[in-house]
């Protein structure tokens, strides 16, 4: 198992200071390592996640090589050759577990912003002190965008948030964490081959959640209450003006309707008795309040906005893959973590890899068991054919 | 179970979607209209051919539209005003979307009616106030839909129709427009 830095590198060095997991601690479990701390309903900080993964490294006793950045991966005979910071490695099979969020995804129109505006990505963001005084345009309303928008607004800056399609969720529902419902009701167990539109499921923005001791809901109404100004999706930059979509009400309607269907499904499940417990009465959230006349343009040269913060998502870094396994949009072509275009190549730790829960830390276990099962049976059959070249060098691990 | 039929061949659309994923070139359409000035602020606009699926295409027949302005604009009113054509495009596009999404979701539609209103401050086009924009300030569409579906499902049809509407997108998002002289 190869790690470019130290164990849990990204959690140590690539997250903003206040970030916490969206999942409660009791859910943040790894194979053989359940949460045993004092706050099962709390939310881990990045440092605590790094600690969890470090403990897991000790529990799992995987053959780990830290400081071993992989620089390239290419075919070599029936197997693979990896060029790493610590020399070359041959492998019969390889599992890509380098994650889905290595690089910030920034739209091309970023190049058209006036030079006077400072641009920062969620990947480079650490805390409000990093920003110049003055207004901030946060682009993107996933978990990342809403959390950073709230933090910047509370720091005394005027924040404008550009909102496209998003996933709305209350932090708690009927007395339980909303992610408890996702887990318990079976939504998270929905399999990749049962979903109507797997491409859409894999590209969904993260839900508008934040993990705080107050268990606060951080939806767009909460942001409006804080004083954040909501505008439509950033559609274009023209002559130094940011132009926003006039379709804001519909993205509110889409998210509200989707949330209602989700809560309906939770209520239905609660009635089946499968939950075997009592809940408080069903609740419905107030519809997302549209601003009375949302701004359609904002002059980025006027000085009102000093910083544009791109919370427009992340993408994996596959620059080291010298294999024809990416689609036209740069995503890895795989079916449940099996890369058919390159036999012996597998992936773990990608969104909705095999189940909706694949996106989360606790989702890795079931995926890893199945993917490793396929890997082992492939190596086994290769062995019977007499072409096996020794044990695999690369073992799967949660990313 | 009754067969759901809104008259939309959803299967053909789904098949096309499948094919076009790997053939983005064929998905490039160019829509055209050509206009001729008649007199005053009256013009006629003809729509017949377009480009798509890699080749020239034609409608079954040519359509001819008169565009003019009403008497309150001191014009002859030989046809609707150009900005009203935007309302025609928006409401017909959203209505088509509702029917198609309903078909795809197995919802039988009995009727769809929509009214669309666009608020327009004409001081902009008259040059009376440079702070007033030329186009619509606000557009409202109201649907009345009779279908075998819950109110929530109907709301979802209308939301999804907006999400996939060409004209809704064209009106709510900026588009680069270049105008040249031959």
Helix and strand arrangement:
The complex is a heterodimer of chains A (399) and B (182).
Chain A lengths: L8 H5 L32 H15 L9 E7 L2 E6 L2 E5 L2 E3 L6 E2 L13 E4 L13 E5 L3 H12 L4 E5 L8 E2 L2 E2 H7 L13 H6 L16 H7 L2 E4 L1 E5 L2 E4 L3 H24 L25 E3 L5 E6 L3 E2 L29 E3 L16 H21 L15
Parallel strand pairs in A: 4-17, 6-15, 7-8, 7-15, 8-11
Antiparallel strand pairs in A: 1-2, 2-3, 5-16, 9-10, 12-13, 13-14
Chain B lengths: L9 H12 L8 E2 L2 E6 L2 E11 L2 E13 L14 H23 L4 E12 L2 H4 L9 E12 L3 H13 L2 H7 L10
Antiparallel strand pairs in B: 1-3, 2-3, 3-4, 5-6
Helix pairs in contact in B: 2-4, 2-5
Describe it for me?
The complex is a heterodimer of chains A (399) and B (182). Chain A is 24% helix and 17% strand. In chain A, strand 2 (79-84) and strand 3 (87-91) form a beta hairpin. Chain A is of the alpha/beta class and 399 residues long. Chain A is built from eight helices and 17 strands. Mean pLDDT of chain A is 93; it is low at 385-399. Chain A is globular and about 65 Å long. The longest helix of chain A is centred in the middle third of the chain and has 24 residues, at 248-271. In chain A, the strands form six sheets. In chain A, strands 6-15-7-8-11 form a five-stranded parallel beta sheet, covered by helices on one side. In chain A, strands 1-2-3 form a three-stranded antiparallel beta sheet, with no helix packed on it. In chain A, strands 12-13-14 form a three-stranded antiparallel beta sheet, with no helix packed on it. The N and C termini of chain A lie close together (11 Å). Chain B has 182 residues and is an alpha+beta fold. Chain B is built from five helices and six strands. Chain B has helices at 10-21, 82-104, 123-126, 151-163, 166-172; strands at residues 30-31, 34-39, 42-52, 55-67, 109-120, 136-147. In chain B, helix 2 crosses helix 4 (151-163) and helix 2 (82-104) crosses helix 5 (166-172). The longest helix of chain B is centred in the middle third of the chain and has 23 residues, at 82-104. The N and C termini of chain B lie far apart (59 Å). The relative contact order of chain B is 0.13. The mean pLDDT of chain B is 95. Chains A and B meet through strand 12 and helix 7 of A and helix 4 and helix 5 of B.
